[in-house]
Backbone:
């Protein structure tokens, strides 16, 4: 109730109504816009701090100086390990990712490995090992990029499911009667 009254007080300048404060016979403070008796005291509320809104930005126009250019080279990337929808068994802690890139990767280009959209590694090698993959289903994607970060090719996503044991905590001991 007090929060409501506080909100009412804060919103009062926008409503443009007078606010009155009275105390009833039980000592409760009552705020209202209609005085109930002559004991009601009109409240003078302070002005609210405001700032004017900023000027709108001028309309922007397209810049012709930057032209998107197609990549000079395009890579075909295939994830050869793990296979699509493979299940990684409980005992296997690490996940090996191997790819095939056609044509061969140029020296200044990188392969970027992703799992569930998170960066795993940037490298020039065609295989990596991911340590201690958490349980669940994960999506792997590999992308080739140039030094400027422009994509030169992306693999098809591969989904893998990782099995992990669930360690159950022992049940608490049963209480013993006294």
Residues:
């Amino acid at each position: 109730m007090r929060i409501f009254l506080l909100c009412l007080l804060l919103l009062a300048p926008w409503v443009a109504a007078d606010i009155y404060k009275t105390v009833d016979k039980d000592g409760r403070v009552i705020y209202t816009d209609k005085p109930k008796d002559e004991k009601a005291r009109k409240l003078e509320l302070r002005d609210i701090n405001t700032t004017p809104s900023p000027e709108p930005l001028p309309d922007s126009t397209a810049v012709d100086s930057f032209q998107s250019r197609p990549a000079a080279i395009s890579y075909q990337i295939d994830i050869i390990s793990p296979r699509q929808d493979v299940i990684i068994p409980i005992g296997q802690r690490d996940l090996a990712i191997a790819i095939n890139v056609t044509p061969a990767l140029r020296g200044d280009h990188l392969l970027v490995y992703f799992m569930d959209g998170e960066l795993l590694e940037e490298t020039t090698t065609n295989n990596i090992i991911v340590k201690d993959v958490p349980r669940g289903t994960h999506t792997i994607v590999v992308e080739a990029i140039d030094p400027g970060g422009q994509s030169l090719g992306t693999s098809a996503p591969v989904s893998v499911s990782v099995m992990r044991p669930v360690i159950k905590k022992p049940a608490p001991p049963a209480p013993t009667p006294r």
DSSP finds one helix and twelve strands in the chain. The chain has a mean pLDDT of 83.
